[in-house]
Amino acid sequence: MQKITVKASQSYDVIIGSGVLGSAAGYIGDVLRSRRTVIVSDDNVFPIYGTKLKETLEKSGFAVSEFVFPHGEQSKSHAVLLNLYGFLAAQNITRSDSIIALGGGVTGDLAGFAAASYLRGIDYVQIPTSLLAQIDSSVGGKTAVDIPAGKNLVGAFKQPKLVIADTDTLSTLPDAFFDDGMGEAVKYGMIWSEELFDLIAEGNIKDHLEEMIVKCVDIKREVVETDEYDKGLRMILNFGHTLGHAIEKTQNFCGLSHGKAVAVGMYLITSAAEKHGIIKDSISGKLRSCLETNRLPWSVDIPAETLFENSVNDKKRFSDDINVIICKTIGKADIVKLPISEYKKLITE
């Protein structure tokens, strides 16, 4: 077991290790003010881990109810969010009570945004059960739901009270979902650590799983502590996401999963930057090889014009400019501010 402390506006621990979910009641009891909580989970995860977690919490004196919703990105919506608000109200949840997000990135985003907004803010705990959520979305306090205009366009910053990442939960992940998380892992290597990139590029990452998770979380910790509210450095965590989100939107969130869309987005922006001379040394080949080694895609059959149109409402846009995240070398990311007209040329020409 390893513990990483994130020193943000609200400091909290990230507990990482095999079997730590079994001690969740103790960890949670140490950080929450009230013994009343709601587990938010989807219909895939709750039957595997939720019932046991609920029993463990109840044995420790918690009053626990559960809100279970249909799995998938389509549930990260205002309709499901409103249902969750209604459930919290029916349970008479107060400001001293809490939410526990048990599941992957969709669950963490949905439950986190509910915690940020219900009664103007209640405590919540993240228990991520997917690789993507363990290395990325559960840490840092970004919460959101999707709207028809795009992904994560309605959200809030809300740091959790605690994150419990049990690596044993990854053993029940189908390969496709594990590979999805590897898209975000490659991102961390590209933007921050050539050493991490090389470890991932070797393949056989399951032999080094906890090491990789700890490295990714520690990178995010350092970035978040420097720029909690995404005004500067934290933007580099969106490498590959501008085009990745555009891919997801174009496919109505029914095509490539998030991590795989990010993988394609990383490759497309890197190869485009090479073509336009923004990157002097070719690194797209190494990136493509790393993606292929980890069963990740690097291309998609969507016209460049469509990707441009579906990416210009990105959160990194400011008036007529957009901040584009580009890695000129492996292990270091730059924030390149471009007029929308130049960004269009970069993507479409």
What this model shows, in words?
With 349 residues, the protein is an alpha/beta fold. It folds into 2 domains: 2-172, Rossmann fold (3-Layer(aba) Sandwich); 175-348, Dehydroquinate synthase-like - alpha domain (Dehydroquinate synthase-like, alpha domain, Up-down Bundle), CATH 1.20.1090. Helices cover 43% and strands 21% of the residues. The protein is built from 13 helices and 12 strands. The strands form 3 sheets. It has a 7-stranded mixed beta sheet, sandwiched between helices. A 3-stranded antiparallel beta sheet has the order 10-11-12. A hairpin with a 5-residue loop joins strand 1 (2-6) and strand 2 (12-17). The N and C termini lie far apart (49 Å).
Layout: helices, strands, pairs:
Layout: E1 2-6, E2 12-17, H1 24-31, E3 36-42, H2 46-59, E4 63-69, H3 78-90, E5 98-103, H4 105-117, E6 123-128, H5 131-137, E7 142-147, E8 150-157, E9 162-166, H6 175-191, H7 194-201, H8 209-226, H9 241-250, H10 258-275, H11 284-293, H12 304-309, E10 317-318, E11 321-329, E12 332-339, H13 340-348
Parallel strand pairs: 2-9, 3-4, 3-5, 5-6, 6-9
Antiparallel strand pairs: 1-2, 7-8, 10-11, 11-12
Considering the chains and any ligands shown, give keywords for the structure.
three-stranded antiparallel β-sheet, 2 domains, 21% strand, 43% helix, 13 helices, globular, 349 residues
Quick structural summary:
The chain has 349 residues and is an alpha/beta fold.
